[in-house]
Amino acid sequence: MTSPKAKPTIYDIARLGEASASTVSAVLNGSWRKRRISQTTAERILAIAEAQGYSANLQARGLRRARSGMVGMILPVHDNRFFADMSQSFEAQARQRGLCPVVVSTLRDPAEEARTVGTLIAYAIDSLFIAGATDPAAVGELCRAADLPHVYVDLPGFDAPSVVSDNYLGAATLTETLVRNLAPAGDPLRDRPYFFGGDPGDYATSRRIEAFRATCTAMLGGVDDSQIIARGYAPARAREDIAALLDRIGGLPSALFINALTVFEGVLSHFVTLPAQAFERTVIGCYDYDPFAAFLQFPVHMIRQNSSELIARAFDLIGAEDRGPRVIEIAPELIAPRTIYAGPFGEFG
Amino acid sequence: MTSPKAKPTIYDIARLGEASASTVSAVLNGSWRKRRISQTTAERILAIAEAQGYSANLQARGLRRARSGMVGMILPVHDNRFFADMSQSFEAQARQRGLCPVVVSTLRDPAEEARTVGTLIAYAIDSLFIAGATDPAAVGELCRAADLPHVYVDLPGFDAPSVVSDNYLGAATLTETLVRNLAPAGDPLRDRPYFFGGDPGDYATSRRIEAFRATCTAMLGGVDDSQIIARGYAPARAREDIAALLDRIGGLPSALFINALTVFEGVLSHFVTLPAQAFERTVIGCYDYDPFAAFLQFPVHMIRQNSSELIARAFDLIGAEDRGPRVIEIAPELIAPRTIYAGPFGEFG
DNA sequence: CCTTCTCGCACAATCGATTGCACAACCTGC
DNA sequence: GCAGGTTGTGCAATCGATTGTGCGAGAAGG
C-alpha cells in the first residue's frame, strides 16, 4: 500500500535522507560503525529505510560480494522420511545462521547432480552440503573447480570433510537384533537373515553389508552371498526383487534387513498381496526410520539416523578453517517396533 | 583441472575470441540471431566458452534483468509425505521449465512465512507458489507489494489464482467410506465417526468438516459438535487430544477421520500404547496418503491428493496472462487400506 | 560513381549494492 | 597559529551480465 511503485533502492533512501548511497549502504548493512558514520545519521537513514519498506537487493549484493548468502544442499529425493528430516534440519540450522537454505533433489541421477551443482554454483552459493550423491567424486570436482566449500553428509568424500552416520554400528546393531528375534520355522533357506536393497557400490550400503556379514558370521556361523540382494533403491525394482526372493526361498525369510525406506516402500507394495499369516514368523528391520513404518502389521525394528546432529556437525565443519578430508561418524539409534520417535524431549522435534 | 584460477566471465571469453563482451553475451544467451551475429562468430565464441568451462554468473544476469530465474515455493513442513510429494513435483516441473526451484518450509509460523517470503523477494524470484501458509493474506500482500506473480496451492487466496484439491469431495468420500465400514460395538458414544485434527480456521479443514458434517447427517441422521476435535496439526498436541478423546468416550471410536499426516503421527504415538485388540472394532481414515500408513495394524482408508496435478495446474496459472483470483479444484483419490499407491502407471511415480 | 540498405559487430550505460580512498572540518597540543 | 590526528561523509570504481544505439564496410540500385 505504502509503496507507490517498486522496491526502493539505496539511492532512493539516499535522496530522501540527504546522504550518499555509500552512507546508506553502510548504515543498512551494519558496517556503519567501521565507516565512522555518526549515530544520528545512522538513525535517520534507518528510520527512512524502515518507512519506505526497504530491503536490499540480494542479487546486487551477491554480485558485488561474490557470494550470495545462500547455502545449498543436494539430496536424492524428498519423499522419504530420512531425507525429509535432513531438509528440515538443514533449513532450521541454515536460517539460524542467517543464511538462505536451498535444497534440491537430484533423483540419484549423476547428470542431474552435475547440472544442479552447476546451477547452484552459478548462483554463487556460499557452500554446499552433499547429502547422497550417486557420483560424489564428480560433484566434489565441480566444487573444487569453483573453489566452493563443501561437506559430505551421509557419505564420505575424499576431497573435503564428511559427516556420516556410523553405518557399521547401525547395521551391526540391527542385524544382531534381527538374529536375536529370529524365530526359525524349520526351513533352512528361510531361517536366515536376508539383506535387501541399496547399491553395493555406495559407501553406506557397503559398510552395512560388511556389518551384516560380520554379525551373521559371529552369531550364526556364516552368510551366503545369496542372502544379500542389493540392486538399487527404486521401489519398483525392490518390488520385483522381493517377489523373486520370496519365490526362490518359498516364503518370507524369518529375518529381513531392508536397507532404505524407498526399498521398504517397494517391498511393502508386494507384501500387501500376502495374507496376514505370512508375517507370523518373520522379523523385519529397516535401516532408516519412519513413524508409520514403525507400526505396521508385523514388527519392524528401525535404525534412526540423527539427521539434526549430522547437519549440525556438517555446519561446524564448513565453518572450520581446515578444509581437508576427514570423516566424523555419528551413532544412529535403534528404534524398537511399535515405537514412535518423538524427538529427544518427546516433543516431536 | 583446466581452470587455472576462477570462473571465466564474458570478458575473458571476449578477449580470447577477439570479440566484444556484448557479442559474447548475445551468443551465450541465445539472443545472437536477433542481434545479427554471424554463425561463424557464434560458433567460435561457443567453442571457446565451452573450452573455458564458462557458465554465466546468474546473479549478474538477475541483477540486470530484475529477475533471477528462480521460482519459490513455501510449505509448512518437509517431513510429511504430502508436502514432500509436492516438493518433488514442484522441483521436477520447475526444472522442466528451465527454472531453479527453491522450496522453503515455514513451520506454520506466520512470522517465518513473512520473513521467508521477504527473503525470496529480495533474491528476485520470478514467482511464488504458496502451499500451505498460516496467514495467506499477509503473504499475498507481500507478493502484491513486490509485484510478484504468485499462486496458491492447496489453499485458496483472494488476490491471485489458486489450485486446491477438492476437499469437500475428498472428505465426503472418506467419511462415507468410514460410515459404510463402521462396525458398531453397542456403545452410543463410540459408535460414531469422529473428525480429528487440523485447524478449523484454515480453508481445507473447514471444507472437510463441512463435508464430514453433511455426510454424517445424510447417512446417520446427525452429528454432534463433540464429534469434531480440531486443535491444530502438531503431533504432540494430537497425542494429548486423542488420549483425552479415548478417555472421554471410553475407548476407540468405531470410525475416526484423521485430518492430516502430522496429526496421524501424533495419534499413532498414543496408539502404540494400546493393546492390539483395541483396534478390532475401529475403522480409520486419513486425509492424505502415506505408503507406510496404508499398511498399519488396522485398516486405514486414505485420501491421496494429486500433488503432481496440483503443481502442473499451478504452473499453468502462473504462466497465464490473467492474474485474477479464481479457484481450480482437483479431485483427490481414495486409497483403500493395504494398498500401496505406485503412481499412475504402477511405476512409483 | 554516388546513395541507400543491410550486415555484423562494438560502445557505453545500466542493474543495486559494496568499498578503497580522498577530503573537509574540527580538535589537540605546542 | 600550525602540524598532525580524528570524524563523518562523499566519490567513483567495481562486480558480470544485458541491451539500446551507433558505425564502418560491403552490396545493391540508379
Strand content of chain A is 5-15%
**Most extensive interface, residues per chain?**
A-B, 66 and 66 residues
Helix percentage range of chain A: 40-55%
Anisotropy-based shape of chain A: elongated
Largest sheet: spatial strand order of chain A? 2-1-3-4-5-11
The tally of strands of chain A reads 12
Integer average pLDDT of chain A: 94
SSE arrangement:
The structure is a homodimer of 349-residue chains.
Chain A: H1 10-17, H2 21-29, H3 39-52, H4 58-65, E1 70-75, H5 81-96, E2 100-105, H6 110-122, E3 127-131, H7 136-145, E4 150-153, E5 162-165, H8 167-181, E6 193-196, H9 203-220, E7 228-229, H10 235-249, E8 255-258, H11 261-271, E9 283-287, E10 300-304, H12 307-319, E11 327-330, E12 333-335
Parallel strand pairs in A: 1-2, 1-3, 3-4, 4-5, 5-11, 6-7, 6-8, 8-9, 9-10
Antiparallel strand pairs in A: 10-12
Chain A binds a DNA duplex (30 and 30 nucleotides) through residues 9-11, 19-26, 28-29, 31, 35-38, 41, 56-66.
Structure description:
- The structure is a homodimer of 349-residue chains.
- By secondary structure, chain A is α/β, with parallel strands linked by helices.
- Chain A folds into three domains: 10-56, 434 Repressor (Amino-terminal Domain), CATH 1.10.260; 67-160, Rossmann fold; 167-304, Rossmann fold (3-Layer(aba) Sandwich).
- Helices cover 43% and strands 15% of the residues of chain A.
- The first copy, chain A, is built from twelve helices and twelve strands.
- Chain A has a six-stranded parallel beta sheet, sandwiched between helices. In chain A, strands 7-6-8-9-10-12 form a six-stranded mixed beta sheet, with helices on both faces.
- Chain A is elongated, with a radius of gyration of 26 Å.
- The interface between A and B is large, with 66 and 66 residues.
- The structure holds a DNA duplex (30 and 30 nucleotides).
